[in-house]
Amino acid sequence: MIFDDLGLSTDLLRAVNDQGYSEPTPVQQQAIPLILQGKDLMATAQTGTGKTAGFVLPMLQRLSEGRTKGRRPVRALVLTPTRELAAQVSDSVSTYGKYMLLRQAAVFGGVRIQPQIQKLRRGVDVLVATPGRLLDHVSQQTVDLSAVEMVVLDEADRMLDMGFIHDIHKILALMPDARQTVMFSATFSNQIRRLADEFLNQPAVVEVASRNTAAENVTQLVHPVDQHRKRELLSFIIGDGNWQQVLVFTRTKHGADRLARQLAQDGLRTTAIHGNKSQAARTRALSDFKRGSVRVLVATDVAARGLDIDTLPHVVNFELPNVPEDYVHRIGRTGRAGNEGDAISLVSADEYYMLKNIERLLNRDITKAVVPGYEPETPMPTRSSRPRRSGGRRGGNGGGSYGGGGGSGQGRFKGNRSNSAPPTRRSASRSEGTDGRRPASAGSARPQKRSQTV
Question: How high is the mean pLDDT of the chain?
Fold first, then answer.
């Protein structure tokens, strides 16, 4: 199948061709015709599958077919959980709509609101927004949602995780009942299904990836290492492999800043991105990373959601995530658009049970390989070991081989011991909202289980 077979207009096909695309991805093949038919849609797809174009292209076509002269009310709304994702979707709207006479705007926190107000007053057809900043505009009566014909909830699972469910209720209540609603999510959790039951009208269902599975073209590898030697090993791996572009994940904003400073001291061009950074600083960091002037980008989970680089070759979990599903989101930043990628996890003994939870989610064991010269002094627990009720979760007297190693990467690293990095402080991260408002769940650590009532 090619894009010409999907029923898209010549203006959209021309814009798609300008980007060098000829064949739609599986999610685009299924979603575009359904959205063009005006159906509500519930779709799941992992990152890197082309889902943004999967709703932007048919949305633009439907708006162009019904465009009226004169006043421009907001006719299509895309809600995203983060500033970065809002900016990414807005760029896609501009890219694919460049031959159309449609106006669009993106509104999110972290930047001045006045320029957004001025743009809204001139009239826009498509509005891309984060929930918090959109409600700020609603309260100031600078936006009217009463004429919305189509709404897209992008990364709906992440919006639930960040505590935006009440904001979503408020926003959707401001729109006509006779609208088209499209929901994209990385997973079909029970909460997502309940959300769809509440807001979607007899939706078509598109599922192009197995639930909670990682991309097949991502090579996953675990390096067991003592906690206090993680930074040293990370610097060694990057240098030994001559990696020029690597995304590194930490659990906390403080940890991201500290690791970025340490890697910079090791001679690696590094910057950090997280919710405490200003929007200008985050935009600059992403731009520097994309064009290669920054070699290492250290990020928290939320801040990396808008990062869209088709050829990103390496992702490193400096710390495993508290929620196993976030591991899938993290490694999905590489291996995109048919490219291959490497996902490396540096795992200390106290993270063993996080690793087992991830492996249970994936329904597979991840290859383990000890890097010569960085053999952990603290062995991994055996399968029969049980975590202590308090303090560090160390235990067991598992063997040093840790699964026998093997897989890509084993034997590739040849290193000598050097001065150890200071221990990484393992503090609970506060819920990180990145749209200028504190989510409803702010102030507490991210829960291990997603049990929020919808």
Answer: 80
Phi, psi of 345 (to 5 degrees): -120, 125
Are 334 and 315 in contact, with CB atoms under 8 Å apart? yes
| Residue at 135: amino acid letter | L
- 430 DSSP 8-state letter: B
Which residues, other chains included, contact 219 with Cβ-Cβ below 8 Å and sequence gap of 6+?
A: 340, 341, 342, 343, 407, 408, 409
Q: Is the pTM of this model over 0.70?
A: no
DSSP-derived pairing of the beta strands 150-153 and 126-129: unpaired
Q: Are 9 and 64 in contact (CB under 8 A)?
A: yes
- The length of the chain is 454
Max distance between CA atoms of the chain, in angstroms, equals: 74
pLDDT one-digit tens code per residue, 261-318: 999 999 999 999 887 888 788 888 888 998 889 999 999 887 666 566 767 899 999 9
Domains and CATH numbers, the chain: 3-207 (3.40.50.300), 218-404 (3.40.50.300)
**In which order are the strands placed within the sheet that holds 341-347?**
218-224, 341-347, 314-317, 246-249, 296-299, 270-273
Question: Strands, E, within 99-207: which ranges?
Answer: 104-107, 126-129, 150-153, 180-185, 204-207
CA separation for the pair 32, 403 (Å, rounded) = 45
- Region label for 141, one of left (φ > 0), alpha (ψ between -120 and 50) or beta (otherwise): left
Helix spans in 201-299 (H): 230-241, 253-265, 279-291
